[in-house]
Amino acid sequence: MRPLTLKRLLWTCGALAVVLLACMVLALNLGAVPISVTDLVLNLGRVAIGQSDQLPTEYRLIVFDLRLPRILLGILVGAALSVSGASFQAMLRNPLADPFILGVSSGAAVGSILATLIAPRFTLITPLGAFLGAITTIAAVYFLGRREGELDSTTLLLGGVISASFLSAIVMFLMTALTGRDLRGTVFWLMGDLSTPIQPGLQWIFSVGLLAGIGAIYTTAADLNLLLTGEREAIHLGVDVTRVKLVVYVSASLLTGLAVSASGTIGYVGLLVPHAVRLLFGPDYRLLIPASALCGAIAIVLADTLARTVAAPTELPVGAMTAMAGAPLFIYLLRRGMR
Amino acid sequence: MALFFLLQFCMPAPAQTEIARGSFESQDATPAARAFTDEAGRHVQIPANVKRIVSLAPNLTEIVFALGEGDRLAGDTDFCDYPADASKKPHVGGPVNPNLEQVVALKPDLVLATAINRRETVDALARIGVPVYATDPHSVEDMIASIEHIGKVLEAEKTAAPLAASLRERLSNLDRRISGATQRRVLFVVWTDPLISIGRGTFIADALRRAGAQSVVDASAEWPRVNLEEIVRLQPEVLVFASAHAGDTQHDIDMLRARPGWRSLEALRRGNIVIISDAINRPAPRLVEAVEQLARAFHPDSFARGGSPASRAQFAEEACTCAR
User: Which residue ranges in chain A fall short of pLDDT 70?
Assistant: First the structure.
């Protein structure tokens, strides 16, 4: 593998950003209501030069008020899940770690439903509850995964799977406390759904929280590279393991919590995107983290575009799309790892 | 990467909402927006002279047609099948997950929503400046009030008032007719596998009361999952099934007779079963018809004595429609 230079880092991220931009234009163009490409380009041009008031009303509503916020939410969620997946894989030295499989997503779901039940009028409490749920779960899974003081790969995975099913049972139990409109909304949200935009007041919190989370994890990228060789080895190489653990677990829980409170439990993105990035660009976390963020965004934007269009006007949950692609790939990785 | 977050910040949603709302008001330059508080307690500005309505539930579609305003309906849901013209309208998907793009593409100046729609759907439409009026009926009287409210919103009070009055009159006539009869203890079956019935706060529970019956299930949840053991203990006098296709339901009931638990139900063994049209599931004008049919099925004696031969013949005819 070629050594990572700043030039290569910037070129790779730049290229991925261009791909993401292309996917965004594609996603803006496709939907239940057909829109021609020339129209879209023309109107995007109008918006760019500040003449957005010249757009037809329903055109602006569909493309800029319905599709664009949804695409931006998909980018946030995809980046958050992929980066937290990548960092869990390094911290737990387990290539199959991912917020969904480890039960962290379900923990965030329990936290956010509990929060809504306790204080339904206080909007900020949902992401907060999701964050607390995520961080509690990852702590529990971490301790479940230790055997004789060492992290054991199989035990950890089993601990995660068991936590996930236990927490799903709690979700089912909590859902009996919801009625009518709330229940129907929650069912869709649990399947992984991007159709509900973030509450207006919370957009800043999500954007800033996401950037802060990814940024904080990025500061530990070099340490994560060393941690992959083993915890003891990393300590000998001068890594402050306790600090790295704290930063990564808190940030990854924040990212998962934000993603889940905004869009429910979307599975497998955090598992597969980092793997694909590793295959394409190598295992160096200094490139892996930003590239995973961009590729995760691309994956979710594409998956959601599919979810919006394959059965239009009926929408499928984006979580079903990612699971349909993700589960077979997970089995492939698992079997390859066994050999 | 920063570019995309910049994009996010370049498009602050609140500012856009202002633009959108402005455009909706300016579309009709002359009439001013009217302020309403809908049945869900939301404050909503609705333009005068509403021309394009999108209905997000079958019962709302029925109400709009009953008010004689079917022409103003620009779109409805996949499940809107009554009256026949309703299914010819452009559809926006199901009530629980309508396609918002499709709704907006129909250029509505009013969207009607109700309790079966998701709160998220209502909020998302309201946020981009589409006026949404939501109803929330918990009783037959609430349904009649909804007709009056929608009449006011559509400026169709002249049709709404007599419609509401005639529905209320039919209900009070019915009330007089069955006043002496003892209440039947019934199980309303929403779903058989698992057994789902109705809670006390639903309009169906109220419709049963109006028809001279009481649900044996007394739950606070709207659509409670009920333990069959409990029903066997309570032994309801009558089982009520709602169906658009009575034949299919008859087949299902025959299957139930063979099943443990169900076959221990006295009502099922004796054939004390009422299959009512699915109008009972929709808080719309036909709900009153369903109440009348139920009352006739629960208390045939009250209808046999008294009542002119003509009206009896009419009832018989209606009962046939019900069974068909």
Answer: 1-2, 52, 179-181, 337-339
The reply to whether A1 falls in a domain is: no
Query: Percentage helix, strand, coil, to 5, in chain A?
Result: 75, 0, 25
Q: What is the nearest CA distance from B269 to chain A, expressed in angstroms?
A: 32
Task: Indicate whether B72 and B205 sit together in one domain.
Answer: no
Residue B192, amino acid: T
Q: Note whether residue A78 is domain-resident.
A: yes
The answer to whether the Cβ–Cβ distance between A17 and B11 falls below 8 Å is: no
Using a CB-CB cut-off of 8 Å, the residues of chain B touching A188 are 96-97, 118, 120
Q: How does pLDDT run across B34-93, given as a tens digit for each residue?
A: 999 999 999 999 999 999 999 999 999 999 999 999 999 999 999 999 899 999 999 998
pLDDT tens across B141-198, in order?
999 999 999 999 999 999 999 999 999 999 999 999 998 889 999 999 988 888 899 9
**Per-residue confidence band for B237, with pLDDT thresholds at 50, 70 and 90:** very high
Assembly ipTM: 0.78
Based on the fold, state whether residues B189 and B91 are members of the same structural domain. no
Q: Domain limits at A19?
A: 8-338
- Which among A211, A297, A313 is the nearest to B102, CB-wise? A313
Q: How far apart are CA B96 and CA B56, in angstroms?
A: 9
How many angstroms separate the CA atoms of A159 and B322, rounded?
Answer: 57
- Is the per-residue pLDDT at B13 higher than 60? no
Query: What is the number of domains present in chain B?
Result: 2
Listed in sequence order, the DSSP H helices in chain B are 2-10, 13-27, 58-66, 100-105, 119-127, 140-153, 157-177, 203-210, 228-234, 246-257, 266-270, 286-298, 300-304, 309-323
Query: Which residues in chain A have Cβ-Cβ distances shorter than 8 Å to B226?
Result: none
Subunit contact B27:A57, Cβ cutoff 8 A: yes
Asked if residue B231 lies in contact with residue B192, where contact means CB atoms within 8 angstroms, the answer is: no
The HSE-up count of residue B192 (CA atoms within 13 Å, CB side) is 17
| Domain end (from B163, B198, B233) | B163
